[in-house]
Amino acid sequence: MWNRIGLCAGCAFLAVLTGCSSLPERVGKLEEENAQIRQELAAMRSGDTVKLNELFEIYWDGNYNRISPVLMNRYLGQIVLPDNPSAKDIDAYLMKLYNLRRYNFDSNMNDQVTAKVSQVGAENLAKLIPYLEFNPFSQAFIGLGGGEQKEMLKRALLQKQNNSQIANLFVSVAEASDGEFILEMLPQVPALIDAVPKLRLEEKALPILKQRLADSTINRFNYDQRWLEVALNAMKPDERQAFVDSYWSKFQRSRSRQGNDWELRERAAQLAPFGCVPAFQYMVDAALRQDTNNYLQRAMALTPCLALDEFAAWYKANRDKLAFDRQDGIYKPAK
């Protein structure tokens, strides 16, 4: 009886130790842990482990805040795709390579990781989609022909909406039949903007562009300058004039509070050729104040002046009475 009690107590202790309920599960768990320990011991004997002092004193590259390429190469050499791999083998292989995104490494290592990813072959392109924000995966995806497969790129866009490289690839192969998909995805994938003029979608896209641009005066988003360029070129003159005046007023108020003078100057230079007088004034005032020759040259091109000295005097005399001549495309004193 006491033996039975001792056995039950031992089993209970084993259950607590392993987190398993049945005896076969507990035995299996312990065998798995023992196998892992044996594997770690074998790695230590083979020299595949690194001591702490080696890691920090030898293999840590403090100049670039990264692990030494020598150690990275040692680890990369251990990530091997087995012969005739199963789907599970491929998933595990890709996950190990994807985990390297945590580390900062140079372009040579990036190329090596790309080559490793590419070993899964074109037949496994779809398996790369979840990892495309990591550059070696997107490069391997392209190298394996993914950039030419429109339906697969659509799937990638739906899953990885912030991947501009995939968006640009899709734009390169997009056709008229993709118009509705592009308009639907445009708010979520701003990088698709180049598909709008390519497929002549400006009229249908204009309400989307105007709404997002109005919001962007407060909430920035990537590609907003390209969006603005496409929208302005698509508008009719009267519509454009009303839009740029409203847009600049909100944009200037928002960026002035943030103290972002460079962004204001850039946006003013973009709006000035479309007849936005306040934007033209801001552009020139900032350029004169900071002696920025580039902006002065760009501004002078929008006036009758031919030399910078002439332009400075002309602007000082006419600053507060300027109007934009749409026919000639230049600023002149209002009559």
What can you tell me about this protein's structure?
The protein is mainly α. Among the domains are: 60-144, no CATH class; 240-335, no CATH class. Helices cover 63% and strands 4% of the residues. It contains 18 helices and four strands. It has a two-stranded antiparallel ribbon. A two-stranded antiparallel sheet has the order 3-4. Helix 12 (202-216) crosses helix 13 and helix 16 packs antiparallel against helix 17 (293-300). It is elongated. The chain starts with a helix and ends with a strand.
Can you tag this structure with a few keywords?
335 residues, mainly alpha, two-stranded antiparallel sheet, 18 helices, 4 strands, 4% strand, elongated, disordered N terminus
Shape: elongated
Strand neighbour order, sheet with most strands: 1-2
Number of helices: 18
Largest sheet: 2 strands, antiparallel
Helical content stands at 55-70%
The total of beta strands comes to: 4
Output the structural class: mainly alpha
**Mean pLDDT score, rounded?**
86
H/E element order: HHHEEHHHHHHHHHHHHHHHEE
